[in-house]
Amino acid sequence: MDLQALASTHGEFYAPAFALRIGVADLVRDLLIPVSQVEADLELGKTGAFSFTVADAYDIEHGGFVTGTGRPLLPLLDFGTEIDLCMGYGDAGGLPAVISGVVTSLSTSFPDGGMPELVVEGRDHSFPLTNGKNSRAWTKARDSDAVAEIAGYYNLAANIEPTSEQHEQIEQNQESDFEFLLKLAKRNKFELFVDELRALHFHRPGYDRADVVRLDWGKGLLSFKPEANLGGQVSLVEVRGWDPRRKETILGTARAGEESGAGGGSRSAGERINAFVRDPSKQPALRLRQPVFTQSEANQRAKALLNERAENFLTGDAESIGLPEIRPDRNVLLGNLGRPFSKTYYVQQATHKIDANGYRTRFKVKETRL
CATH 2.40.30.150 spans which residues of the chain? Predict the structure, then answer.
């Protein structure tokens, strides 16, 4: 979608607005709590975070933070309180939720001059998965089966893509549930995150989805800092495992040119390193021993590792006008950057912030369509 089409949806990007909802109540409009800034940080493979600052809400006479209606404020923001942070433009009542989560931190300071401010921080609904350590096992199961069971345990909706490989045993060994799910995601080259609708995502990256917006430098795209770096690129990945039935070594391989999205007239990152180091005996390789038990699993792991390296060849940091559409696991088209850098990128992280300076979105991207 081009920026002009989004402008008509967002009131030409005038009047940035936000809402902080606890149930059906809006902290700012219903409870008259003065909030000076809000921020949401969303990143693949990590717990999403939000924060907001309450200013001028301290009642010296009563010695505590209060709402505009005189109610004590801290009990409303107790740990575990569920909050939806909505951001956009115009009428706050119809804004989309950028993040939904629970309060996990409260902090303040009492300065020598001026009034104290209250900073409220929280995490999305993947936060409970990060607490504690667990050990358990699944027999004759797929990775997606284990993920579905854990999602159900935490009452999360699930957007889970079935994995094909059935393992004799899947083990979780003294890991938090989030660490364990992230390990499964990485070995399948899947993304892992919990969205604003409390749905756990475990699936292939959305590289082939349509771009959510086109941003040109000077027209919506405020800044962009790309970096193309051959450091860490390899020509070959080998993953060695052991077949307990046949009592023999398993060797999975993936070579430059086999990356996802390779072809189409441009060289992959691995092919670029091959051109740089022409002697095959000296071309860089990544050789690992991993707990793989079938040939297909070893090949899959090798290709996932090769893709992971290749996708870090061209990355970038960008800042745009505030756009709630820019979120992880989505694609954006960045233009007016010259031939090497004007292309579609995949969003890995997005930070949305509204303060006295307006609404801005900062995001990190990587190239995936070679």
Answer: 214-228+313-367
The sign one gets for the Cα dihedral 195, 198, 202, 207 is: negative
- Tokens describing residue 156: 């999360």
CATH 3.55.50.10 domain span(s) along the chain? 131-203
Cα distances (Å, whole numbers) of residue 66 to 31, 77, 155, 249:
10, 11, 33, 67
Spatial distance between the Cα atoms of 365 and 316, rounded to a whole number of angstroms:
5
Burial of 73 (0-12, 13-18, 19+ CB in 10 A): buried
- Which residue reads 């009990």 in tokens? 75
For the stretch 95-152, pLDDT in tens is 999 999 999 999 999 988 888 999 999 999 999 999 999 999 999 999 999 999 999 9
Condensed to tens digits (0 to 9), the pLDDT of residues 141-173 reads 999 999 999 999 999 999 999 998 888 899 999
What fold does the segment set 16-128 form as a domain?
Answer: Elongation Factor Tu (Ef-tu); domain 3 (2.40.30)
Q: Which of 359, 364, 366, 363 is nearest to 87 (CA)?
A: 359
CATH of domain 214-228+313-367: 2.40.30.150
Residues 131-203: name the CATH superfamily: Baseplate protein-like domains (3.55.50.10)
Hey, what long-range contacts does 126-131 have (CB within 8 A, 24 or more apart)?
126/47, 126/48, 126/178, 126/193, 126/194, 126/200, 127/47, 127/101, 127/102, 128/154, 129/154, 129/176, 129/177, 129/178, 129/181, 130/47, 130/176, 130/177, 130/178, 130/179, 131/176
